[in-house]
Amino acid sequence: MLWLLKNSRTLLIIFVLGLILLVFSLPFKEKTYVFDWDQANDFEAVETIAKGKLRLIGPRVTSDTGFFLAPWHYYYLLPFYKLTNGSLDMGFWGVVVIQYLLVVASFFLTKKWFGEVAGIAVGILIATPTDLTAWGFMYVPLLSLLFFYLCLETLKKPQFLVWLFLLFGFGCTTYAVFYALGIPFLYIIIHLIRQGKISWQKLISGIALFLLPYFPLLVFDLRHNFLNITNLLRFAGNQDGQGSQKGYFIKVFFRAIETMWLGQELQKSIALIVVLFCVIVLIVGAITLFRKEKTFVFLWLISSLVPMSLFKGNVSEYYYAPVILLIPIFISGLLIKGKVRGKILLFVLIIIIATLRFKNKVFTTPGIVLGDKIKVVNELEKIGDKYSVSYDFNLGEDSGYNFIFKKLGKNYVEDGSAQLYTITYKNGNKLPSGTKIVSTEKLSIYKR
Question: Phi/psi at 64 (nearest 5 deg)?
Answer without folding.
Answer: -65, -15
